[in-house]
């Protein structure tokens, strides 16, 4: 806390180590320093009195001019300085030795002492340096009294041996050593003592600078008094030396300012490295205040201020955090402005420039704010980011210099504020990018990446965890009916409900309507209860656009420590297991299932079937079987239905109901349809070449009906095999047509216009209305086998079959009955006037070779009026 110390060694001798500055001085050490200051003053006054009494007075008329000139010289020497701040002491490299030497050579002790005191203490008028005026006054006295006493002793001891200027030179050199010694002592009292070696080096460099200044002063004096126009030459040299010193001072200041800028930028960047890199389950996390303390302390140290106050918006909610480096902020200043950036008169800052406030010059409200802070001078600059005010920096009072903050300080603070604001903006941007990388933009919940990071950390730490997956059903229907905006609102509402039900448990949105929860230290029974609770929560009704939508939820979970297996630490595996459990839960009673290894085998088998299907087509594992169709009542074989079969090398003969839905779901159904269609047309062509006119029915899927190019491909295949289109029947289900009528109907109309026979399969199980049939360009309907099988025992089924037959005939449609397995059913169908029968009574689906054998064994050839051969079933 020393305001001033002069004539120390060069900057290089003061800079080797710059330890951190203490935030505040202990009150005990303050009292010790006050006592030490009075001791220094007493010593200075005592030595001055002794020196004055031991020297002979030399009063001449020239003293009227020399005294004021010396005062001006001392004042200029104090103003033209190179300032270096070390710890809590400000070291000042000045030219004080020059006016001191001139005073020793030309003026009495009293005049020189008065000039030094007048220049030193007068420069502090109006400044807060009066706090240490006692110490400074004592040092000022000693800096003059001791050199005069030493010079007098040396001159008396070396009379006739040394030149007259030798004594003043030696005396002058004692002045910087005295200043250095008392400054080191003051530093020790304040608790920041230097090591002995460092102190010795500092004293040596101080002596070197003092010797340089003394030599310059002596040479200038000798030239001025011994050479014509010597004073002009000395003046020119003095201007050059002063210019050199000032240039060096400016260069030194710029270098240290650049170092400070670099330190502040690095401190802000490094403080971000300690921030949380894992995603926060709730949202963005405020930057710890402690990470900004080195930044505030570095700014305070560089500007040599008693206090630096950072007011920063570190919290994501925009709340202001106040951080003080240096002297503690008075309670009145803290309590006066709870929202300082809005209410404090010092912080109402337009633009981004630095504003300077001083007690003597400021308006009353600013003076009141300064008094509350315990400061007489303040520099204040806002921290403005790209879009908002990020905070403000306050710098209070110089510590060690007589003068207040200068233009260089203002420029440095402005640059520091710009760097700090840019660094804060970058940190906020990085925090936002990190948050966006780990969070879902729609709901604000964790995304899959964020969930994997948190869950992975917990699992690697050895925590027992349960990964729970919850799916919201009916979302697709809502989006299609009301638009995706309302579907998104349902997702957001479901996420909020689960967030409230779970508390702090990590919750993520994995994809469209799927959520994941990490339950730590939960048993499987507890996880089951949580899953039931979440399903109930998201199944509550959703009011959307003047309607209320009823939803449903299904959940599956997997434990990292299953009862019958080894602990699992891979979060991706747990997510996969939970997904498998969700699929199984769709068929459960309560919609919640726990993962079991057997479930994985089922889905693994499905995955294998999907991935191996294309190869199965190419290698002949997939075959087409044929089930004959017979016209009633003549019992003539009119065609067959092509049915696909897969002989898997590992799983054996697969039922079509197992693999066909998988093929349809994965988009391979086009390849399957093309394969069956090609086999059917080849068979029809073979029969035509043998004189048999028989049709083949091929089943279509939803994807076929949505493909606008499908009619052209059918026409190309018919033309390539030279087959009449009426011998090809394409069977479609009601649900496949109604799934997307706008796309299906144009495709059906083009197929019908080509002459291809279109049949509605499984009629009676879907829409099955007259209006529905009138919309479709179809030629026949196929009664679902469930009704045909029940005709003999259920009158309702019998009535349904009779109604379908009558409805079809009323629309000029042929009617085909599936599932005919006994003679009674066949006879009933004949009585109703059904056109065609198909079922186990006639034949099961047969491979191509067996179907040919069946035709030969169970039919006879009748030559009719047509050229083709007609096959009739034998009795």
Automatic annotation (TrEMBL):
Transmembrane stretches, start-end: 32-51, 100-121, 133-153, 165-190, 229-248
Annotated keywords: Membrane, Transmembrane, Transmembrane helix
Ranges for domain EAL: 606-859
Pfam families: EAL (PF00563), GAF (PF01590), GGDEF (PF00990)
Keyword Transmembrane helix included in the entry's annotation: yes
Keyword match Transmembrane: yes
Domain GGDEF: 463-597
SUPFAM superfamilies: EAL domain-like, GAF domain-like, Nucleotide cyclase
Annotated PROSITE patterns: EAL (PS50883), GGDEF (PS50887)
Region named Disordered: 1-21
GO molecular function annotations of the record: cyclic-guanylate-specific phosphodiesterase activity
PANTHER family reported for this sequence: CYCLIC DI-GMP PHOSPHODIESTERASE PDEF, SIGNALING PROTEIN YKOW
Name the record gives this protein: EAL domain-containing protein
């Amino acid at each position: 806390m020393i305001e001033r110390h002069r004539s120390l060694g060069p900057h290089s001798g003061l800079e080797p180590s710059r330890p951190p500055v203490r935030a505040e001085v202990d009150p005990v050490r303050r009292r010790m320093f006050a006592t030490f200051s009075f001791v220094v003053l007493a010593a200075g006054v005592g030595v001055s009195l002794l020196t004055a009494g031991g020297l002979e007075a030399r009063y001449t008329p020239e003293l009227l001019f020399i005294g004021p000139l010396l005062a001006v010289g001392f004042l200029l020497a104090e103003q033209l300085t190179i300032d270096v701040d070390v710890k809590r002491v400000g070291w000042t490299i000045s030219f004080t030795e020059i006016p001191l030497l001139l005073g020793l050579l030309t003026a009495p002790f009293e005049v020189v002492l008065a000039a030094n005191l007048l220049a030193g203490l007068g420069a502090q008028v109006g400044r807060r340096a009066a706090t240490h005026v006692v110490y400074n006054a004592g040092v000022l006295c000693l800096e003059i009294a001791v050199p005069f006493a030493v010079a007098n002793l040396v001159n008396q001891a070396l009379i006739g041996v040394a030149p007259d200027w030798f004594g003043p030179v030696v005396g002058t050199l004692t002045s910087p050593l005295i200043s250095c010694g008392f400054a080191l002592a003051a530093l020790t009292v304040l608790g920041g003592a230097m090591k002995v070696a460092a102190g010795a080096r500092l004293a040596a460099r101080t002596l070197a600078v003092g010797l340089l200044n003394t030599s310059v002063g002596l040479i200038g004096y000798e030239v001025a008094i011994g050479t014509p126009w010597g004073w002009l030459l000395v003046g020119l040299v003095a201007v050059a030396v002063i210019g050199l010193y000032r240039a060096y001072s400016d260069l030194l200041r710029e270098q240290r300012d650049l170092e400070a800028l670099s330190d502040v930028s690095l401190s802000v960047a490094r403080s971000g490295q300690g921030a949380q890199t894992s995603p926060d389950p709730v949202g963005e996390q405020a930057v710890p205040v402690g990470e900004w303390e080195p930044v505030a302390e570095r700014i305070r140290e560089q500007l040599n201020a008693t206090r630096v106050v950072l007011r920063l918006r570190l919290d994501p909610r925009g709340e202001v955090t106040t951080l003080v480096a240096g002297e503690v902020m008075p309670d009145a200043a803290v309590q006066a402005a709870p929202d300082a950036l809005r209410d404090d008169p010092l912080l109402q800052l337009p633009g981004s420039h630095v504003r300077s406030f001083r007690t003597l010059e400021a308006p009353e409200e600013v003076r009141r704010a300064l008094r509350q802070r315990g400061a007489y001078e303040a520099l204040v600059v806002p921290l403005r980011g790209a879009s908002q005010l990020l905070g403000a920096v306050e710098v209070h009072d110089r510590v060690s210099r007589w003068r207040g903050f200068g233009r260089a300080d203002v420029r440095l603070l402005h640059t520091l504020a710009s760097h700090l604001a840019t660094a804060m903006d970058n940190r906020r941007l990085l925090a936002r990018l990190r948050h966006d990388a780990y969070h879902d933009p729609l709901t604000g919940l964790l995304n899959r990446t964020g969930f994997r990071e948190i869950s992975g950390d917990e699992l690697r730490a050895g925590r027992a965890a349960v990964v729970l997956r919850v799916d919201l059903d009916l979302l697709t229907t809502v989006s299609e009916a009301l638009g995706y905006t309302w579907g998104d609102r349902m997702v957001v509402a479901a996420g909020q409900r689960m967030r409230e039900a779970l508390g702090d448990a990590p919750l993520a949105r994995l994809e469209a309507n799927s959520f994941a929860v990490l339950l730590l230290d939960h048993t499987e029974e507890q996880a089951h209860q949580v899953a039931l609770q979440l399903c109930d929560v998201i199944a509550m009704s959703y009011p959307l656009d003047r309607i209320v939508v009823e939803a449903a939820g299904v959940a599956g979970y997997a434990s990292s420590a299953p009862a019958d297996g080894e602990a699992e630490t891979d979060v991706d595996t747990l997510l996969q297991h939970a997904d498998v459990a969700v699929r199984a839960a769709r068929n459960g009673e309560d919609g919640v299932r726990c993962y079991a290894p057997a479930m994985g085998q089922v889905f693994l088998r499905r995955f294998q079937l999907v991935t191996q299907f294309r190869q199965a087509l190419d290698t002949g594992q997939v075959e087409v079987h044929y089930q004959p169709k017979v016209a009633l009542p003549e019992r003539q074989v009119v065609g067959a239905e092509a049915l696909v079969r897969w002989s898997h090398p590992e799983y054996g003969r697969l039922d079509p109901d197992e693999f066909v839905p998988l093929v349809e779901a994965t988009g391979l159904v086009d390849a399957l349809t093309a394969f069956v269609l090609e086999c059917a047309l080849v068979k029809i062509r073979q029969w035509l070449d043998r004189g048999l006119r028989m049709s083949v029915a091929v089943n279509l899927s939803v994807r076929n009906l949505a493909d606008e190019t499908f009619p052209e491909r059918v026409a190309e295949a018919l033309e390539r095999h030279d087959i009449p289109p009426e011998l090809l029947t394409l069977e479609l289900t009601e649900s496949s047509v109604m799934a997307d009528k706008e796309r299906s109907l144009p495709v059906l109309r083009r197929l019908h216009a080509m002459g291809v026979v279109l049949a509605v399969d499984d009629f009676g199980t879907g829409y099955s209305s007259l209006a529905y049939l009138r919309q479709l360009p179809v030629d026949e309907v196929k009664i679902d086998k469930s009704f045909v099988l029940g005709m003999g025992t259920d009158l309702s089924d019998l009535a349904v079959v009779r109604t379908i037959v009558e409805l079809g005939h009323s629309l000029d449609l042929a009617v085909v009955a599936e599932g005919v397995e006994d003679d009674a059913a066949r006879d009933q169908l004949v009585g109703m006037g059904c056109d065609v029968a198909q079922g186990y009574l006639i034949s099961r689906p047969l491979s191509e070779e067996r179907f040919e054998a069946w035709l030969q064994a169970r039919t006879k050839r009748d030559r009719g009026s047509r050229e083709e051969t007609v096959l009739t079933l034998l009795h």
